[in-house]
Amino acid sequence: MIDLDGIAGIRDGIVPPAIYSDPELYQLELENVFGRSWLFLAHDSQLPKPGSFVQTYMAEDPVLVVRQRDGSVKAFLNQCRHRGMRICRADAGTAKTFTCSYHGWAYDLGGDLINVPAEDAGYHGEIDKARWSAHKVPRIANHKGFYFGCWSESTPEFADYLGDMAFYFDAVVDRWDGGLELVPGTSRWVIDCNWKFASEQFASDMYHAPIAHASAMLALTEDPAFQVFPPYEAPGRQFAGDGHGSGGNWLPVFPIPEPTFGPVYTEWLAANKEEVFRRIGAERAHKVWAHNTIFPNFSWLGQAATMRVWHPRGPGQIEVWAWTFVPRDAPDEVKDAIRQGNQRTFSPAGVFETDDGENWSEIQRVLRGWKARSVPFNVQMGLGHEERDVHGLPGKTNHVYAETAARGFYQRWSDLVRGLSWERIRELDERREAEEVRPA
Ligand code: FES
Ligand SMILES: [Fe+2]
């Protein structure tokens, strides 16, 4: 396995490539990173009534997320306590109970074991069903209809974990009086790359956009204003929430060329902008609408109306689960325009999405090389040019063409994968903030 001390100072922006390919490190990630972080589970709109459920994953662990009769949401490991079969094999639906298809143990909506076949004949009435419930996700947080789960009792509360990221997250999810909804159905696809390439890119990387997406921009519009997009001299900022595990990206809104979402959407947006301004302020509405990652693997892209989880599947593969988000109260033709715009740009066959996946999977192929795995990467753009609480933006930011959020992402990852306690991480964060290089 790679030398863990070697990744302690990763925030200097020198990244050993073995972190993307080492199988033993990956097992540590599952336990120390994903096992101690808040992970996205589901959105309110996916669980409309009591008994509504979705099956998802917390990293590689399958979980069922279920609306309870009292309206609350619970989640438990989708693993039968008898021999470990997946309790529920449906992706989503409505249930009164969940019955295992192997020998028939049945669980209620909260995951408690309620029926065992042959309880008298086979178990002689001696099985204590209360002891054999499905394993519950002990902590669930609801942030504006977005449910996150955490296995660890020592991880900070979700609001604390989110920190300054709440300002940026809410600018996307809290724009509308009626809230958001996810368009029914999940787009899923597999990319042969390490999960950190995708998470980091959505946290931090505007740098690839004018190059990697140049042909897609040309396909969308012949307007020369979009041929280097966003312009390198753009006044955008990038946010790096290194406090409690978020990374992000921020830039002033750039008008996306009309063909992306079309006039139905653009006109509706113009007619309803006062609602957004009232909720989150005009400046924030215009400026905070780009891509972000809530550490470790929940990302979104405002302009393209996509949210997704990068489920890790071994060190060299991810399963992308993506949703289109729409304002819940928008008319159907507007929701449809957004859905179609998202399909054209950031769906499995979207013109931008395929650019990203191609780069990530090609990097992963290069990393098959023994020598290629030993040559460190440069993640240093903008190092030492960070600022705090400037331009009305909370937290640490930098020019949008920077890798500050990437360094925050890797530092948080390094702290967690090395097994540092959250108390120790908090101490280190305070010290790092005090030692931060500040431009004169
Ligand atoms: S594995 Fe589920 S009932 Fe046997
Ligand atoms: Fe991209």
Provide an overview of this structure.
The protein is an alpha+beta fold. The protein has two domains: about 5-35 and about 155-435, Alpha-Beta Complex (Naphthalene 1,2-dioxygenase Alpha Subunit, Chain A, domain 1), CATH 3.90.380.10; about 40-140, Rieske [2Fe-2S] iron-sulphur domain (Rieske Iron-sulfur Protein, 3-layer Sandwich). The protein is built from 13 helices and 22 strands. The radius of gyration is 22 Å and the shape is globular. The two termini are about 40 Å apart. Bound molecules: FE2/S2 (inorganic) cluster and fe (ii) ion (FE2). Fe (ii) ion binds near residues 208, 209 and 213. FE2/S2 (inorganic) cluster binds near residues 80, 85, 102 and 104.
